[in-house]
Amino acid sequence: MSKKILVLAGDGIGPEIVAEAVKVLKALHTEGAIDVTLEEALVGGAAYDAYGDPLPEATLTAAKASDAVLLGAVGGPKWEPLHISKRPEKGLLGLRAGLGLFANLRPAVLYPQLAAASTLKPEIVSGLDIMIVRELTGDIYFGQPRGIETLPSGERRGINTMVYTESEVERICRVAFDIAMKRGKRVCSVDKANVLECTEMWREVAIKTAAEYPDIQLSHMYVDNAAMQLVRAPKQFDVMVTGNIFGDILSDCAAMLTGSIGMLPSASLNEHGQGMYEPIHGSAPDIAGRGVANPLATILSVSMMLRYSLNAPEAAARIDAAVSNVLDQGLRTADIMSEGMRQVGTAEMGDAVVAALSV
């Protein structure tokens, strides 16, 4: 039975990079490696321009009816003057909420061909392969009460609340443990249990849930130490699991260990395995329309889609190998260009990946 993929190109470089990822999907479909049906819709600034809404009802309905969503990027200076409820980013948040996406997967993988791009010494980062699993729906970003109030004295006070339920912690830990079972079977749960009761409970639930996974080696680390260890000795980590705000910060920190944000994909999953897949980089309006953006993170997002939502791990592995192959050939977009390599544009890089699929 054909799997439905909703393609949301978005804004800025989104349409250019998504076009290359679609090439890869179509190539795999044509040869019979996967059976997919693609549908397109608008989200973000493009949707606002067309319909006055960053997330039209038709887009959300199509997303709910799909097996997976492929997203380019949203946002740009053009839409910043809009009211916050109409900004492109609201479309992204609405998709996350509407699909019930609670688990964000952010791999930080260093390709050996790009080791020189990292700001850390090669011996520190070579062979790096971390998966950060971040909870998306709770924590201080969504907890109540929140807001800014004026005290009787006239002074203002800002309030945010860090809150998690046991069930929310348990389900994200299960995602991390299940992923780790297919990797190195090591999970580091990151908290601040020494000063935050919310994360003290997080640690208790992680330990309790881990009892059902006897093959998993569970460790715990305070978030400040985890940030330091990511820079000091990142290869000690296999899978990291943490809450929304800690995960937001640590995943960006881990991303830059690799030296190229243009290479890193992400996935956001719900309880049914349905997911939204996107590169972690932004819409880069400054280079939009020039055909120079790096499509590899978006192509690798398709690999994650095949692995986590479409149950096609063999096809996913072929995409990963094809990306490695084009890097071996010395092909580079501007953002990862180095001496002695051959600089190519967005479309040429996409074509090279498609060609490498059959190698």
UniProtKB/TrEMBL annotation:
Q: In which pathway does it act?
A: Amino-acid biosynthesis; L-leucine biosynthesis; L-leucine from 3-methyl-2-oxobutanoate: step 3/4
Swiss-Prot/TrEMBL cofactor(s): Mg(2+); Mn(2+)
Q: Which Pfam families match?
A: Iso_dh
Q: Which EC main class describes this enzyme?
A: oxidoreductase
Could you mention a single GO BP entry for this protein? L-leucine biosynthetic process
Assembly, in brief, is: Homodimer.
What family is it from?
Answer: Belongs to the isocitrate and isopropylmalate dehydrogenases family. LeuB type 1 subfamily.
The protein, known as:
3-isopropylmalate dehydrogenase
Task: State the encoding gene.
Answer: leuB
